[in-house]
Amino acid sequence: RVFTTRKMPRAGIDLLEAEGHTVTQWQENRELTEAELIAHSKETDGILLSGRRKVDTAFLEACSHLKVISLFSVGYDNVDVAAATKYKIPIGHTPDVLSKATAETAFLLMIATARKTFYHHKRIAKGEWDFFDPTAGLGQDLHGKTLGILGLGNIGFEMAKYCKNAYGMDVIYHNRGNNEQAEKELGAKKVSFDELLAQSDVLSVHANLTNELKGIFNTGAFGKMKRNAIFINTARGGIHNEEDLTRALENGTIWGAGLDVTNPEPMDKNNALLDMPNVSVLPHIGSATKETRDAMAALAAVNLIAGLKGEKLPKCVNPEVYG
Ligand code: 8YV
Q: What are the pLDDT digits (tens) for 31-72?
């Protein structure tokens, strides 16, 4: 018995049903409550979890019988991994299959922001395509500029490749470890966080949200960035302080921002960022292509099936459960 917290792509459900599992899907177009999640989880052996509902000690204590929790995401910041490990519950996630789609979203936000795309689109819709003024509504070039990446894993690497190949951008990055492949193939250079801030023309975030990174892009950080800098975040909204970002954009401390993730989500429709010409916002659609969502659903199902059989999950966040 399996419970999914969203209506999942058939690609995942078919795999589960082919294995003989009974799948119950949350059908409503709203996030289920903590109590509803616990109630449904108690009736099942494994859950396929999508959305921001927390897997914390309270949940794990109530549902310690679960054989597996399979996330429909690469990010797992909503999960208390140490607590899950303590309860010997393996957590699956969906890395790799969404790397290109997410990097494409970062790439499109970079271009959309540099060329004020959404602003110009809105101008036409408002009937403001009138007199040609060669000095108005100007964007900025991207070719030959420096791309800085915070968190050069699989998604960051794809973004770096797009930027290098399309615009000949120099790539610098800040990461815990070294990314030798990116250094060799793209000439990427590892720098300190302060150097990343000071040298990037475009700074794109591709890191997991950890306690260390919570709100790391704040007034202090924006103040160290170039005035022409474009800030891109397709990772998690919690990595930037949104009030500080808004102020930095209003004051011209940095030039622009492209966000696929906000804090909070969903973003309020009256948010000041939505009226800024140098800002592009998307509603967390990084992985939202048909092919990628099917691949994520299939991988989440494969993780779930393995967990229900008591086998190792192919993509496990806490392999220490097997130790
Ligand atoms: C998901 C994501 O769409 O993978 C992630 O971490 O943020 C997105 O791909 C989202 O988490 C829905 O589960």
A: 999 999 999 999 999 999 998 889 999 999 999 999 999 999
Catalytic residue among 174, 236, 240, 293: 236
What ipTM, to 2 d.p.?
0.95
CA distances from 216 to 68, 171, 266, 311, 323 (A): 32, 21, 21, 38, 33
Give how many domains the chain has, as a whole number: 2
265 is catalytic: yes
Strands (E), the chain: 2-4, 23-25, 46-49, 68-71, 91-92, 146-150, 170-174, 189-190, 202-205, 230-233, 256-259, 279-281
Structural domain range at position 73: 2-97+289-322
Please identify, by atom number, the ligand 1 atom nearest to the C-alpha of residue 285.
Answer: 3
Question: For residues 279 and 229, what is the distance between their CA atoms, to the nearest angstrom?
Answer: 12
CATH code where residue 224 lies: 3.40.50.720
pLDDT-above-90 percentage for the chain: 98
What's the whole-number average pLDDT of the chain?
97
Averaged pLDDT, 267-278? 98
Ligand 1 pocket check for 73: Cβ under 6 Å: yes
Same domain, 300 and 180: no
Mean pLDDT confidence for 188-192: 98
Q: Are residues 128 and 211 in the same domain?
A: yes
- Distance between CA atoms of residues 257 and 229, nearest Å: 8
